[in-house]
Amino acid sequence: MPSSLRASLAYRLSDFQPLLVDELVFTHGTSRSEKDEAATARAAVRGGFTDDVVLTGLPRSGSTLVCALLNLVPGVVALHEPMPLPDWASRMTRETVIREIDRFFAEARHSLLHTGTAPSRQVDARVPSNPFADEKDASGVRHAHGVLGLLALAPGTVLAPDFTLVVKHTAPASPPCSNS
Fold first, then answer.
1. What are the extents of the domains in the chain?
2. How far apart are CA 170 and CA 67, in angstroms?
3. Which tens digit of pLDDT belongs to each residue from 101-122?
4. Residue 9 — φ and ψ, nearest 5°?
5. Nearest in space to 112 (alpha carbons), one of 68, 44, 162
6. What pTM was computed for the model?
């Protein structure tokens, strides 16, 4: 994916860590904390950059459409809201949530490379461009109709080990993680 497109549409997980973990200090991608050693080592192996991207935005801002469109780019797999972030944030510290996100990326990357599948919300076995039903209920509300399940790569898709993995999640209005 062209770096200008990546920069305009999404951010690497490491870009969010200073916002999520105020106790850690990050300088030029290098952590001053032992808690981030594994991620830093992995990034060093890849020349200082990871191919893991967090795509986020406010509700109804177009981030789901961008997620669906990124799946059309060769060498990119974009997953739609695959992690239980609200659950994690309600019961884990910020550091633990970051470790869980990092673990999710590693497990999803491994699964995609070895089985061609990864968890993702989906509609009709595809990442949706709009997960809301066209119909409104009696109160005029449209409800999401996507389900979380294993998303399979298109038949014949072969991923290089350094493929770009994008995980889209809607941004919360404020960080819900506990500080403890």
1. 3-129+145-170
2. 11
3. 999 999 999 999 999 999 999 9
4. -105, -30
5. 162
6. 0.68
